[in-house]
Amino acid sequence: MASRRPGVDRADLRRGRAQQLPFREGQFDGCVSHMALMLMSEAERVAAELARVLEPGGTLAVVLGGGAAGGEACELFLRLAKPLFLAAPAEQQIPRLGDPRLRTRDGFDAVFRPAGFGPAEWQTVRVDLTGPPDRIWRTVSTFYDLGPLDASVTAELRARFEAESAAMALPDGRIPCALRVLVVTAVR
Predict the structure, then answer these.
(1) pTM
(2) Helix orientation angle between 133-143 and 151-166, rounded to the nearest 10 degrees
(3) Neighbour count for residue 165 (Cβ, 10 Å)
(4) Separation of alpha carbons 100 and 97, rounded Å
(5) Is residue 71 scored above 70 in pLDDT?
């Protein structure tokens, strides 16, 4: 899919896993992970590989999900959807992904400091996603895999979400929605 994106015709695209990167030692002065590191297994192995491919003084920049930003459509969606995910048959449930340590300062440092990174700097950024009702549903429903839910349950969830989010609509009809992301940087 990446090779079909405009402007990447000269890019060196390779398939690989973060636990065994297909690059030579010290090849990069920076590495970015956007909403992916928090989903990876074998966190220590990932940290070691990132340290290996970064040159000394290289920067790792990571964007992690930080949850809903407060009192808006994202929180409403989670409040409505979470019980439905938990009620789905066990064989349909998606296992939790990633290492929870990577979502906290202390946990992140516990994984990355032994790999050779300095203390991580954390910044919280609010991302405003406010928009028309249809776009808000498409946005919030893609943050989470609705696959474990039957089509009828998903349709009911959408109907409840649209009805309840209408009550929070702004005068122009847009639904307020915001997320927090955590931007973490560490130097090797």
Answers:
(1) 0.81
(2) 130
(3) 21
(4) 9
(5) no
Query: Cα-flanking dihedrals φ and ψ of residue 129, to 5°?
Result: -115, 10
**Closest of 141, 153, 131, 147 to residue 76, by C-alpha:** 141
Distance CA 99, CA 170 (A): 38
Q: Which two tokens stand for residue 89?
A: 């048959």
Contact present, 37 and 102 (Cβ < 8 Å) = yes
Q: With cut-offs at 50, 70 and 90, classify the pLDDT of residue 162.
A: very high
pLDDT digits (tens, 9 = 90+) for 123-157: 999 999 999 999 999 988 887 778 788 899 999 99
The sign one gets for the Cα dihedral 67, 35, 102, 121 is negative
Cβ atoms within 10 A of the Cβ of 157, count? 20
Q: How many CB atoms lie within 10 A of CB 148?
A: 19
